[in-house]
Amino acid sequence: MNEPFLDEKAKKILADRAALMARKERDLNANATSNLLAFYVGEEQQYALAYESIDKVIPSHKITPVPGVNPLFSGLLYHNTEAWVVVNLHQLLIGKPAKSFSHFILLSEDHYRIALSADTIVGQISYDETVELVQLTLSETGQSYVRGIYKNNIAILDKKSIIDLLNLEQVEWN
């Protein structure tokens, strides 16, 4: 007899534990929601980023222009003794530079620090992660900065793709 001997009580405990684990997994999948920060770039399109990917949102203030760089980068923002590269979301997402914006959304990863320019901050929205996003076609470069469209009108941005802009091989510098 190779099977370990289990009494009825042990079998019931194991069955109850398996049922509890299955119920917890179902509950986790049913409650797969997160919070997004929604904002406008331009007047028509609403964008969003996951709150956990954002360091801070600050009101717009003076940036230091850097001559000779790609127009995608508006310059440097100094905040709390750190320099942040300002990415002009108008240029990145719409193809036209914006001269002014109301807020900066600060993102960091490893040693990269990026300040995204935003026009109007809408606020927090709940995101149901079980809803399939509408996918967009890739740009000419094969790069998409949008993970997909949520609720037919909110473009969810991909933080990693935006951070990767700082990789010199991907940006055509002037």
UniProtKB/TrEMBL annotation:
UniProt organism field: Legionella quinlivanii
InterPro entries: CheW-like_dom_sf, CheW-lke_dom
Domain called CheW-like: residue spans: 33-174
Pfam family, any one: CheW
Protein name: CheW-like domain-containing protein
Source organism, top-level taxon: Bacteria
GO biological process, one term: chemotaxis
